[in-house]
Protein 1
Amino acid sequence: MIRLRTMRRWFTSVTVIAFGLAVLFSWSMIVSSKNSDDIKRLESHASPSNGKPYSMVKPTVTDLKEAADRIKELESRLQDLELRIPKRFPEVKFLTYKDRKRILITGGAGFVGSHLVDRLMMEGHEVIVVDNYFTGRKRNVEHWVGHENFELIHHDIVNPIFIEVDQIYHLASPASPPHYMYNPVKTIKTNTVGTINMLGLAKRVGARVLIASTSEVYGDPEVHPQPETYWGHVNPIGPRACYDEAKRVSETLAYSYNKQEKVEVRVARIFNTYGPRMHMNDGRVVSNFILQALTGDSITIYGSGEQTRSFQYVTDLVDGLIKLMNSNYSLPVNLGNPDEHTIKEFATIIHEMVGKKSTITHKDAMEDDPQRRKPDITRATTILGWTPVVPLEAGIKKTIQYFQGELQRSKHSERNLHEPSFYGFTSKADYEDL
Ligand SMILES: NC(=O)c1ccc[n+]([C@@H]2O[C@H](COP(=O)([O-])OP(=O)(O)OC[C@H]3O[C@@H](n4cnc5c(N)ncnc54)[C@H](O)[C@@H]3O)[C@@H](O)[C@H]2O)c1
Protein backbone atom coordinates (compact mmCIF):
# COMPACT_ATOMS: atom_id res chain seq x y z
CA MET A 1 0.00 0.00 0.00
CA ILE A 2 2.79 2.32 1.07
CA ARG A 3 4.75 1.41 -2.04
CA LEU A 4 1.79 2.18 -4.27
CA ARG A 5 1.41 5.62 -2.66
CA THR A 6 5.15 6.38 -3.10
CA MET A 7 5.01 5.40 -6.76
CA ARG A 8 1.96 7.65 -7.33
CA ARG A 9 3.78 10.59 -5.73
CA TRP A 10 6.86 9.91 -7.83
CA PHE A 11 4.74 9.77 -11.01
CA THR A 12 3.02 13.10 -10.17
CA SER A 13 6.36 14.84 -9.56
CA VAL A 14 7.81 13.60 -12.87
CA THR A 15 4.72 14.82 -14.74
CA VAL A 16 4.92 18.27 -13.13
CA ILE A 17 8.64 18.65 -13.91
CA ALA A 18 8.13 17.50 -17.52
CA PHE A 19 5.31 19.97 -17.96
CA GLY A 20 7.45 22.80 -16.51
CA LEU A 21 10.33 21.99 -18.84
CA ALA A 22 8.00 21.97 -21.83
CA VAL A 23 6.66 25.42 -20.90
CA LEU A 24 10.18 26.82 -20.41
CA PHE A 25 11.35 25.41 -23.75
CA SER A 26 8.46 26.89 -25.73
CA TRP A 27 8.91 30.29 -23.96
CA SER A 28 12.61 30.43 -24.84
CA MET A 29 11.80 29.52 -28.46
CA ILE A 30 9.33 32.36 -28.68
CA VAL A 31 11.77 34.84 -27.13
CA SER A 32 14.71 33.86 -29.29
CA SER A 33 12.68 33.98 -32.49
CA LYS A 34 11.38 37.38 -31.41
CA ASN A 35 14.92 38.60 -30.73
CA SER A 36 16.24 37.42 -34.05
CA ASP A 37 13.20 39.01 -35.75
CA ASP A 38 14.01 42.25 -33.92
CA ILE A 39 17.66 42.12 -34.91
CA LYS A 40 16.74 41.45 -38.54
CA ARG A 41 14.22 44.24 -38.47
CA LEU A 42 16.73 46.64 -36.93
CA GLU A 43 19.40 45.70 -39.44
CA SER A 44 17.19 46.08 -42.44
CA HIS A 45 15.81 49.32 -41.05
CA ALA A 46 19.07 50.88 -40.03
CA SER A 47 21.35 49.45 -42.68
CA PRO A 48 21.92 51.82 -45.56
CA SER A 49 22.23 48.89 -47.99
CA ASN A 50 18.81 47.30 -48.05
CA GLY A 51 19.04 44.96 -45.11
CA LYS A 52 22.66 43.85 -45.46
CA PRO A 53 24.27 43.46 -42.05
CA TYR A 54 26.54 46.29 -41.08
CA SER A 55 29.62 44.06 -41.13
CA MET A 56 29.22 43.81 -44.93
CA VAL A 57 28.67 47.52 -45.53
CA LYS A 58 31.27 50.26 -45.77
CA PRO A 59 29.78 53.52 -44.46
CA THR A 60 29.75 56.40 -46.94
CA VAL A 61 30.33 60.08 -46.09
CA THR A 62 26.57 60.62 -46.21
CA ASP A 63 26.01 57.79 -43.70
CA LEU A 64 28.53 59.31 -41.32
CA LYS A 65 26.91 62.71 -41.68
CA GLU A 66 23.49 61.20 -41.00
CA ALA A 67 24.88 59.44 -37.93
CA ALA A 68 26.48 62.66 -36.69
CA ASP A 69 23.15 64.50 -37.15
CA ARG A 70 21.35 61.77 -35.27
CA ILE A 71 23.87 61.91 -32.41
CA LYS A 72 23.42 65.68 -32.20
CA GLU A 73 19.65 65.25 -32.06
CA LEU A 74 19.96 62.65 -29.31
CA GLU A 75 22.37 64.88 -27.37
CA SER A 76 19.94 67.77 -27.44
CA ARG A 77 17.11 65.46 -26.28
CA LEU A 78 19.34 64.29 -23.47
CA GLN A 79 19.99 67.90 -22.47
CA ASP A 80 16.23 68.57 -22.41
CA LEU A 81 15.75 65.56 -20.17
CA GLU A 82 18.57 66.65 -17.87
CA LEU A 83 16.90 70.03 -17.45
CA ARG A 84 13.76 68.29 -16.21
CA ILE A 85 15.62 66.49 -13.43
CA PRO A 86 14.96 68.49 -10.23
CA LYS A 87 17.98 70.63 -9.28
CA ARG A 88 19.74 70.28 -5.96
CA PHE A 89 19.88 73.48 -3.94
CA PRO A 90 21.94 74.30 -0.87
CA GLU A 91 20.09 73.48 2.35
CA VAL A 92 18.47 76.79 3.34
CA LYS A 93 17.37 77.54 6.88
CA PHE A 94 13.68 77.05 7.59
CA LEU A 95 11.93 80.15 8.91
CA THR A 96 8.36 80.08 10.12
CA TYR A 97 5.74 82.29 8.50
CA LYS A 98 6.23 84.80 11.33
CA ASP A 99 10.00 85.22 10.79
CA ARG A 100 10.24 84.73 7.05
CA LYS A 101 10.32 87.98 5.07
CA ARG A 102 9.59 88.63 1.43
CA ILE A 103 12.53 90.69 0.24
CA LEU A 104 12.98 92.55 -3.04
CA ILE A 105 16.52 93.17 -4.28
CA THR A 106 16.76 95.56 -7.21
CA GLY A 107 19.97 94.92 -9.12
CA GLY A 108 20.11 91.47 -7.49
CA ALA A 109 21.80 89.88 -10.52
CA GLY A 110 24.79 92.21 -10.13
CA PHE A 111 27.99 91.77 -8.15
CA VAL A 112 26.89 92.89 -4.67
CA GLY A 113 23.23 92.00 -5.21
CA SER A 114 23.92 88.36 -6.04
CA HIS A 115 25.94 87.88 -2.82
CA LEU A 116 23.09 89.47 -0.87
CA VAL A 117 20.69 87.05 -2.59
CA ASP A 118 22.82 84.09 -1.49
CA ARG A 119 22.95 85.26 2.08
CA LEU A 120 19.23 86.03 2.42
CA MET A 121 18.28 82.78 0.69
CA MET A 122 20.53 80.80 3.05
CA GLU A 123 18.84 82.57 5.98
CA GLY A 124 15.48 81.23 4.78
CA HIS A 125 13.79 84.35 3.38
CA GLU A 126 11.80 84.67 0.16
CA VAL A 127 13.86 86.68 -2.30
CA ILE A 128 12.65 88.47 -5.41
CA VAL A 129 15.29 89.86 -7.77
CA VAL A 130 14.41 92.62 -10.21
CA ASP A 131 17.11 93.37 -12.77
CA ASN A 132 17.39 94.66 -16.34
CA TYR A 133 20.75 92.86 -16.84
CA PHE A 134 22.55 96.04 -17.89
CA THR A 135 25.63 95.09 -15.88
CA GLY A 136 24.20 92.07 -14.05
CA ARG A 137 24.02 88.49 -15.29
CA LYS A 138 21.51 85.70 -14.82
CA ARG A 139 24.46 83.45 -14.23
CA ASN A 140 25.15 85.18 -10.89
CA VAL A 141 21.88 83.89 -9.45
CA GLU A 142 21.04 80.94 -11.70
CA HIS A 143 21.86 78.48 -8.92
CA TRP A 144 18.65 79.62 -7.16
CA VAL A 145 16.35 79.52 -10.20
CA GLY A 146 13.64 76.96 -9.47
CA HIS A 147 13.92 77.22 -5.68
CA GLU A 148 10.53 77.77 -4.04
CA ASN A 149 11.81 80.84 -2.13
CA PHE A 150 13.33 82.55 -5.17
CA GLU A 151 11.98 84.62 -8.05
CA LEU A 152 13.82 86.43 -10.83
CA ILE A 153 12.06 89.24 -12.71
CA HIS A 154 13.49 90.90 -15.81
CA HIS A 155 12.41 94.50 -15.33
CA ASP A 156 13.82 98.01 -15.62
CA ILE A 157 13.12 99.92 -12.41
CA VAL A 158 12.73 103.16 -14.33
CA ASN A 159 9.23 101.71 -14.86
CA PRO A 160 7.02 101.11 -11.80
CA ILE A 161 6.52 97.59 -10.51
CA PHE A 162 3.67 96.32 -8.34
CA ILE A 163 4.57 93.50 -5.97
CA GLU A 164 4.02 92.72 -2.29
CA VAL A 165 7.19 92.82 -0.19
CA ASP A 166 8.35 93.51 3.39
CA GLN A 167 11.81 94.90 2.63
CA ILE A 168 13.50 96.44 -0.41
CA TYR A 169 17.26 96.51 -0.94
CA HIS A 170 17.56 99.08 -3.71
CA LEU A 171 20.88 98.28 -5.41
CA ALA A 172 20.02 98.74 -9.08
CA SER A 173 22.51 101.12 -10.67
CA PRO A 174 25.67 100.71 -12.67
CA ALA A 175 28.51 101.14 -10.18
CA SER A 176 31.80 101.36 -12.04
CA PRO A 177 32.91 104.48 -13.95
CA PRO A 178 32.90 102.98 -17.48
CA HIS A 179 29.43 101.53 -16.88
CA TYR A 180 27.81 104.61 -15.37
CA MET A 181 29.47 106.93 -17.90
CA TYR A 182 28.31 104.73 -20.82
CA ASN A 183 24.81 106.23 -20.67
CA PRO A 184 24.93 109.08 -18.14
CA VAL A 185 21.29 110.08 -18.62
CA LYS A 186 20.15 106.50 -17.94
CA THR A 187 22.35 106.41 -14.83
CA ILE A 188 20.59 109.53 -13.56
CA LYS A 189 17.14 108.09 -14.41
CA THR A 190 17.87 104.79 -12.63
CA ASN A 191 18.97 106.58 -9.47
CA THR A 192 16.20 109.19 -9.48
CA VAL A 193 13.09 107.86 -11.30
CA GLY A 194 14.03 104.30 -10.29
CA THR A 195 14.44 105.36 -6.66
CA ILE A 196 11.09 107.18 -6.73
CA ASN A 197 9.49 103.96 -8.02
CA MET A 198 11.01 101.93 -5.18
CA LEU A 199 10.06 104.48 -2.53
CA GLY A 200 6.55 104.64 -4.05
CA LEU A 201 6.30 100.84 -3.87
CA ALA A 202 7.51 100.92 -0.24
CA LYS A 203 4.90 103.54 0.60
CA ARG A 204 2.09 101.46 -0.99
CA VAL A 205 2.97 98.17 0.70
CA GLY A 206 4.50 99.52 3.94
CA ALA A 207 7.96 98.07 3.22
CA ARG A 208 11.28 99.30 4.56
CA VAL A 209 13.80 100.46 1.92
CA LEU A 210 17.57 100.39 2.02
CA ILE A 211 19.21 102.70 -0.53
CA ALA A 212 22.63 101.62 -1.78
CA SER A 213 24.38 104.98 -1.84
CA THR A 214 28.09 105.44 -2.30
CA SER A 215 31.24 107.05 -0.97
CA GLU A 216 31.14 109.02 -4.24
CA VAL A 217 28.64 111.37 -2.55
CA TYR A 218 31.77 112.77 -0.82
CA GLY A 219 33.31 113.52 -4.26
CA ASP A 220 37.03 114.32 -4.05
CA PRO A 221 36.99 114.77 -0.25
CA GLU A 222 38.85 117.41 1.70
CA VAL A 223 38.25 115.56 4.99
CA HIS A 224 40.00 112.30 5.91
CA PRO A 225 38.71 109.84 6.81
CA GLN A 226 35.18 110.70 5.70
CA PRO A 227 32.50 110.67 8.41
CA GLU A 228 28.79 110.63 7.47
CA THR A 229 28.50 114.25 8.64
CA TYR A 230 30.81 115.45 5.84
CA TRP A 231 28.76 117.05 3.02
CA GLY A 232 31.17 116.27 0.22
CA HIS A 233 33.12 117.96 -2.53
CA VAL A 234 31.50 117.04 -5.82
CA ASN A 235 31.97 118.60 -9.25
CA PRO A 236 28.36 118.84 -10.52
CA ILE A 237 29.36 118.92 -14.19
CA GLY A 238 32.33 116.55 -14.17
CA PRO A 239 32.40 113.12 -15.86
CA ARG A 240 31.41 111.37 -12.60
CA ALA A 241 28.55 113.77 -11.84
CA CYS A 242 25.87 111.57 -13.44
CA TYR A 243 26.55 109.00 -10.74
CA ASP A 244 27.65 111.14 -7.77
CA GLU A 245 24.87 113.68 -8.07
CA ALA A 246 22.23 111.05 -8.91
CA LYS A 247 23.15 109.14 -5.75
CA ARG A 248 22.96 112.35 -3.74
CA VAL A 249 19.44 112.95 -5.13
CA SER A 250 18.62 109.33 -4.32
CA GLU A 251 19.49 109.99 -0.66
CA THR A 252 17.48 113.23 -0.70
CA LEU A 253 14.48 111.37 -2.12
CA ALA A 254 14.74 108.73 0.61
CA TYR A 255 14.63 111.33 3.40
CA SER A 256 11.85 113.29 1.65
CA TYR A 257 9.68 110.13 1.45
CA ASN A 258 10.53 109.44 5.07
CA LYS A 259 9.52 112.93 6.18
CA GLN A 260 6.47 113.33 3.98
CA GLU A 261 5.14 109.76 3.61
CA LYS A 262 6.63 108.10 6.72
CA VAL A 263 8.44 105.49 4.63
CA GLU A 264 11.08 103.70 6.73
CA VAL A 265 14.45 104.26 5.04
CA ARG A 266 18.02 103.09 5.54
CA VAL A 267 20.96 104.60 3.64
CA ALA A 268 24.24 102.73 3.18
CA ARG A 269 27.18 104.75 1.85
CA ILE A 270 29.17 101.95 0.30
CA PHE A 271 32.93 102.26 -0.20
CA ASN A 272 34.98 100.32 -2.77
CA THR A 273 34.07 96.65 -2.67
CA TYR A 274 35.67 93.68 -4.38
CA GLY A 275 35.25 89.93 -4.61
CA PRO A 276 34.07 87.09 -6.86
CA ARG A 277 31.47 88.00 -9.50
CA MET A 278 32.74 91.53 -9.94
CA HIS A 279 32.90 92.45 -13.60
CA MET A 280 36.05 91.52 -15.45
CA ASN A 281 35.94 94.71 -17.50
CA ASP A 282 34.57 97.24 -15.04
CA GLY A 283 37.78 99.26 -15.05
CA ARG A 284 38.12 99.24 -11.25
CA VAL A 285 41.47 98.92 -9.54
CA VAL A 286 41.18 95.37 -8.17
CA SER A 287 39.65 93.79 -11.28
CA ASN A 288 42.02 95.66 -13.62
CA PHE A 289 45.14 94.68 -11.69
CA ILE A 290 44.16 91.01 -11.24
CA LEU A 291 43.18 90.63 -14.87
CA GLN A 292 46.33 92.33 -16.13
CA ALA A 293 48.51 90.20 -13.85
CA LEU A 294 46.76 86.95 -14.82
CA THR A 295 47.03 87.60 -18.53
CA GLY A 296 50.66 88.73 -18.25
CA ASP A 297 49.88 92.32 -19.36
CA SER A 298 51.55 95.20 -17.60
CA ILE A 299 49.72 96.45 -14.49
CA THR A 300 48.61 100.02 -15.22
CA ILE A 301 48.63 102.69 -12.54
CA TYR A 302 46.93 105.99 -13.43
CA GLY A 303 48.86 108.94 -11.97
CA SER A 304 51.62 108.60 -9.38
CA GLY A 305 50.06 105.64 -7.57
CA GLU A 306 50.28 107.55 -4.28
CA GLN A 307 46.48 108.05 -4.24
CA THR A 308 44.87 105.79 -1.64
CA ARG A 309 41.91 103.43 -1.64
CA SER A 310 40.46 101.12 0.95
CA PHE A 311 38.69 98.00 -0.25
CA GLN A 312 36.21 95.83 1.56
CA TYR A 313 35.46 92.23 0.74
CA VAL A 314 31.93 91.65 -0.53
CA THR A 315 30.78 89.34 2.28
CA ASP A 316 31.67 92.04 4.82
CA LEU A 317 29.52 94.52 2.91
CA VAL A 318 26.59 92.07 2.74
CA ASP A 319 26.86 91.59 6.49
CA GLY A 320 26.72 95.37 7.03
CA LEU A 321 23.77 95.85 4.66
CA ILE A 322 21.69 93.24 6.48
CA LYS A 323 22.59 94.67 9.89
CA LEU A 324 21.68 98.18 8.75
CA MET A 325 18.36 97.07 7.23
CA ASN A 326 17.34 95.37 10.45
CA SER A 327 18.52 98.17 12.75
CA ASN A 328 16.51 101.08 14.10
CA TYR A 329 18.92 103.61 12.64
CA SER A 330 17.74 105.74 9.73
CA LEU A 331 20.58 108.21 9.05
CA PRO A 332 23.31 107.38 6.46
CA VAL A 333 25.92 104.82 7.51
CA ASN A 334 29.36 104.32 5.91
CA LEU A 335 30.13 100.69 5.04
CA GLY A 336 33.73 100.18 4.02
CA ASN A 337 37.06 98.89 5.16
CA PRO A 338 39.26 101.62 6.71
CA ASP A 339 42.41 99.64 5.94
CA GLU A 340 43.95 102.21 3.57
CA HIS A 341 46.58 101.39 0.93
CA THR A 342 48.17 103.33 -1.91
CA ILE A 343 47.31 102.16 -5.41
CA LYS A 344 51.01 101.31 -5.79
CA GLU A 345 50.77 98.94 -2.80
CA PHE A 346 47.73 97.20 -4.29
CA ALA A 347 49.58 96.73 -7.56
CA THR A 348 52.52 95.16 -5.74
CA ILE A 349 50.36 92.84 -3.58
CA ILE A 350 48.42 91.56 -6.59
CA HIS A 351 51.54 91.29 -8.69
CA GLU A 352 53.18 89.12 -6.04
CA MET A 353 50.12 86.99 -5.33
CA VAL A 354 49.47 86.17 -8.98
CA GLY A 355 53.15 85.41 -9.43
CA LYS A 356 53.35 86.21 -13.13
CA LYS A 357 55.98 88.20 -14.86
CA SER A 358 53.96 91.30 -15.67
CA THR A 359 55.50 94.74 -15.19
CA ILE A 360 53.98 97.78 -13.46
CA THR A 361 53.55 100.86 -15.69
CA HIS A 362 52.21 104.40 -15.14
CA LYS A 363 49.75 106.44 -17.24
CA ASP A 364 48.30 109.97 -16.89
CA ALA A 365 45.95 110.53 -13.94
CA MET A 366 42.18 110.32 -14.63
CA GLU A 367 40.03 113.47 -14.42
CA ASP A 368 38.37 113.99 -11.00
CA ASP A 369 40.01 110.84 -9.64
CA PRO A 370 39.75 111.16 -5.82
CA GLN A 371 43.17 111.32 -4.15
CA ARG A 372 42.15 109.74 -0.84
CA ARG A 373 39.25 107.53 0.09
CA LYS A 374 38.92 106.07 3.55
CA PRO A 375 35.74 105.57 5.50
CA ASP A 376 35.19 106.59 9.06
CA ILE A 377 33.17 103.61 10.28
CA THR A 378 32.62 104.73 13.88
CA ARG A 379 28.87 104.93 13.26
CA ALA A 380 28.63 101.42 11.80
CA THR A 381 30.73 100.02 14.62
CA THR A 382 28.91 101.70 17.48
CA ILE A 383 25.36 101.53 16.14
CA LEU A 384 25.36 98.28 14.17
CA GLY A 385 28.20 96.48 15.92
CA TRP A 386 29.64 95.97 12.44
CA THR A 387 33.26 95.85 11.44
CA PRO A 388 34.90 94.25 8.39
CA VAL A 389 36.58 90.93 9.19
CA VAL A 390 38.02 89.57 5.96
CA PRO A 391 41.75 90.36 5.63
CA LEU A 392 42.87 91.91 2.32
CA GLU A 393 45.11 89.02 1.26
CA ALA A 394 42.41 86.40 1.96
CA GLY A 395 39.86 88.33 -0.08
CA ILE A 396 42.29 89.01 -2.92
CA LYS A 397 43.18 85.30 -3.02
CA LYS A 398 39.51 84.34 -3.40
CA THR A 399 39.03 86.98 -6.10
CA ILE A 400 42.09 85.81 -8.04
CA GLN A 401 40.71 82.24 -7.96
CA TYR A 402 37.38 83.50 -9.32
CA PHE A 403 39.05 85.45 -12.16
CA GLN A 404 41.25 82.47 -12.99
CA GLY A 405 38.12 80.32 -13.29
CA GLU A 406 36.41 82.92 -15.48
CA LEU A 407 39.41 83.14 -17.82
CA GLN A 408 39.50 79.34 -18.18
CA ARG A 409 35.75 78.97 -18.60
CA SER A 410 34.71 77.73 -22.00
CA LYS A 411 31.16 76.50 -21.35
CA HIS A 412 27.97 78.15 -20.14
CA SER A 413 27.15 75.23 -17.89
CA GLU A 414 30.09 75.73 -15.54
CA ARG A 415 28.10 77.12 -12.67
CA ASN A 416 29.14 80.16 -10.71
CA LEU A 417 28.53 78.52 -7.37
CA HIS A 418 29.88 79.02 -3.91
CA GLU A 419 29.69 76.50 -1.17
CA PRO A 420 26.96 77.50 1.33
CA SER A 421 29.42 77.60 4.22
CA PHE A 422 31.03 80.51 2.40
CA TYR A 423 28.17 82.73 3.57
CA GLY A 424 27.83 81.46 7.07
CA PHE A 425 31.25 82.18 8.55
CA THR A 426 31.27 83.87 11.90
CA SER A 427 34.72 83.31 13.33
CA LYS A 428 38.23 84.02 12.10
CA ALA A 429 38.79 80.31 11.52
CA ASP A 430 35.83 80.29 9.14
CA TYR A 431 37.24 82.86 6.80
CA GLU A 432 40.89 81.99 7.05
CA ASP A 433 40.65 79.51 4.21
CA LEU A 434 38.67 81.85 1.96
N1 LIG B 1 30.70 97.70 -5.85
C1 LIG B 1 31.10 98.80 -5.28
O1 LIG B 1 32.30 98.97 -5.01
C2 LIG B 1 30.10 99.85 -4.90
C3 LIG B 1 30.55 101.00 -4.26
C4 LIG B 1 29.64 101.97 -3.91
C5 LIG B 1 28.31 101.80 -4.17
N2 LIG B 1 27.88 100.68 -4.81
C6 LIG B 1 26.44 100.58 -5.10
O2 LIG B 1 25.99 99.25 -4.85
C7 LIG B 1 25.04 98.89 -5.83
C8 LIG B 1 25.44 97.57 -6.48
O3 LIG B 1 26.70 97.73 -7.11
P1 LIG B 1 27.46 96.54 -7.86
O4 LIG B 1 28.90 96.72 -7.68
O5 LIG B 1 26.83 95.25 -7.51
O6 LIG B 1 27.14 96.90 -9.37
P2 LIG B 1 26.65 95.95 -10.56
O7 LIG B 1 26.74 96.77 -11.79
O8 LIG B 1 27.34 94.65 -10.50
O9 LIG B 1 25.13 95.70 -10.16
C9 LIG B 1 24.10 96.62 -10.44
C10 LIG B 1 22.89 95.84 -10.92
O10 LIG B 1 21.82 96.75 -11.20
C11 LIG B 1 21.23 96.38 -12.44
N3 LIG B 1 20.60 97.56 -13.02
C12 LIG B 1 21.20 98.69 -13.47
N4 LIG B 1 20.27 99.56 -13.93
C13 LIG B 1 19.06 98.96 -13.73
C14 LIG B 1 17.73 99.35 -14.01
N5 LIG B 1 17.44 100.54 -14.57
N6 LIG B 1 16.73 98.49 -13.71
C15 LIG B 1 16.99 97.28 -13.15
N7 LIG B 1 18.24 96.87 -12.88
C16 LIG B 1 19.27 97.70 -13.16
C17 LIG B 1 22.38 95.84 -13.26
O11 LIG B 1 21.98 95.03 -14.33
C18 LIG B 1 23.16 95.07 -12.20
O12 LIG B 1 22.69 93.77 -12.07
C19 LIG B 1 24.93 100.05 -6.79
O13 LIG B 1 23.82 100.82 -6.47
C20 LIG B 1 26.19 100.84 -6.57
O14 LIG B 1 26.00 102.20 -6.84
C21 LIG B 1 28.76 99.71 -5.16
Protein 2
Amino acid sequence: MLFSAITLLRCECGEVHPAALTFKPDRARFVCANCLGRERGAREAVCARCGKIEPIHNHHVRGRDVSEDTVEWCINCHQKYHRGRSVQAIEKRKN
Ligand SMILES: [Zn+2]
Ligand SMILES: [Zn+2]
Ligand SMILES: [Zn+2]
Protein backbone atom coordinates (compact mmCIF):
# COMPACT_ATOMS: atom_id res chain seq x y z
CA MET A 1 0.00 0.00 0.00
CA LEU A 2 1.28 3.45 -0.88
CA PHE A 3 1.42 6.31 1.58
CA SER A 4 -1.25 8.69 0.42
CA ALA A 5 0.52 11.36 2.51
CA ILE A 6 3.48 11.27 0.10
CA THR A 7 1.46 13.37 -2.31
CA LEU A 8 1.01 15.95 0.44
CA LEU A 9 4.45 17.51 -0.03
CA ARG A 10 3.82 20.37 2.32
CA CYS A 11 4.53 21.34 5.93
CA GLU A 12 1.79 22.60 8.25
CA CYS A 13 3.43 26.07 8.17
CA GLY A 14 3.02 26.25 4.39
CA GLU A 15 6.59 25.35 3.38
CA VAL A 16 6.51 23.38 0.11
CA HIS A 17 10.15 23.28 -1.01
CA PRO A 18 11.17 19.59 -1.21
CA ALA A 19 14.71 20.32 0.08
CA ALA A 20 13.26 21.71 3.33
CA LEU A 21 10.84 18.86 3.97
CA THR A 22 11.36 15.60 5.85
CA PHE A 23 8.81 12.81 5.93
CA LYS A 24 7.85 11.85 9.49
CA PRO A 25 6.28 8.36 9.46
CA ASP A 26 5.02 8.75 13.03
CA ARG A 27 3.01 11.79 11.94
CA ALA A 28 2.25 10.43 8.45
CA ARG A 29 3.18 13.79 6.96
CA PHE A 30 6.01 16.06 5.91
CA VAL A 31 7.51 18.54 8.35
CA CYS A 32 9.96 21.29 7.37
CA ALA A 33 13.36 21.83 8.97
CA ASN A 34 12.31 25.11 10.58
CA CYS A 35 9.36 23.51 12.36
CA LEU A 36 11.58 20.64 13.53
CA GLY A 37 14.17 23.16 14.73
CA ARG A 38 11.49 25.05 16.60
CA GLU A 39 10.40 21.83 18.32
CA ARG A 40 14.01 21.23 19.37
CA GLY A 41 14.12 24.73 20.84
CA ALA A 42 16.60 26.15 18.34
CA ARG A 43 17.49 29.85 18.67
CA GLU A 44 15.25 32.05 16.51
CA ALA A 45 16.14 35.27 14.71
CA VAL A 46 15.38 37.13 11.48
CA CYS A 47 16.70 35.11 8.57
CA ALA A 48 19.00 37.20 6.35
CA ARG A 49 17.75 35.34 3.28
CA CYS A 50 13.94 35.14 3.58
CA GLY A 51 13.42 37.85 6.23
CA LYS A 52 11.17 35.75 8.46
CA ILE A 53 11.72 34.99 12.15
CA GLU A 54 12.77 31.35 12.08
CA PRO A 55 15.18 28.94 13.81
CA ILE A 56 18.66 30.00 12.76
CA HIS A 57 21.63 28.04 11.50
CA ASN A 58 24.73 30.09 10.64
CA HIS A 59 25.79 29.85 7.00
CA HIS A 60 29.47 30.12 6.12
CA VAL A 61 29.54 32.72 3.37
CA ARG A 62 32.71 31.55 1.63
CA GLY A 63 32.80 28.02 2.94
CA ARG A 64 33.75 26.69 6.33
CA ASP A 65 37.36 26.02 5.34
CA VAL A 66 38.01 29.44 3.80
CA SER A 67 36.59 31.89 6.31
CA GLU A 68 34.83 32.21 9.65
CA ASP A 69 32.38 34.76 8.18
CA THR A 70 28.82 33.65 8.73
CA VAL A 71 25.34 35.00 8.07
CA GLU A 72 22.19 34.04 9.94
CA TRP A 73 19.98 31.95 7.69
CA CYS A 74 17.03 29.88 8.79
CA ILE A 75 17.36 26.12 8.53
CA ASN A 76 14.99 25.90 5.56
CA CYS A 77 16.92 28.48 3.52
CA HIS A 78 20.07 26.61 4.37
CA GLN A 79 18.76 23.30 3.15
CA LYS A 80 17.40 24.83 -0.03
CA TYR A 81 20.74 26.47 -0.76
CA HIS A 82 23.00 23.53 0.00
CA ARG A 83 20.91 20.80 -1.56
CA GLY A 84 20.08 23.03 -4.51
CA ARG A 85 23.75 23.57 -5.24
CA SER A 86 24.28 19.94 -6.14
CA VAL A 87 21.35 19.97 -8.57
CA GLN A 88 22.18 22.03 -11.65
CA ALA A 89 18.57 22.11 -12.80
CA ILE A 90 17.61 23.96 -9.62
CA GLU A 91 20.50 26.41 -10.01
CA LYS A 92 19.36 27.31 -13.53
CA ARG A 93 15.80 27.91 -12.38
CA LYS A 94 16.94 30.64 -9.94
CA ASN A 95 15.05 33.87 -10.52
ZN1 LIG B 1 7.15 24.05 8.69
ZN1 LIG C 1 15.14 31.83 5.67
ZN1 LIG D 1 25.56 26.95 4.81
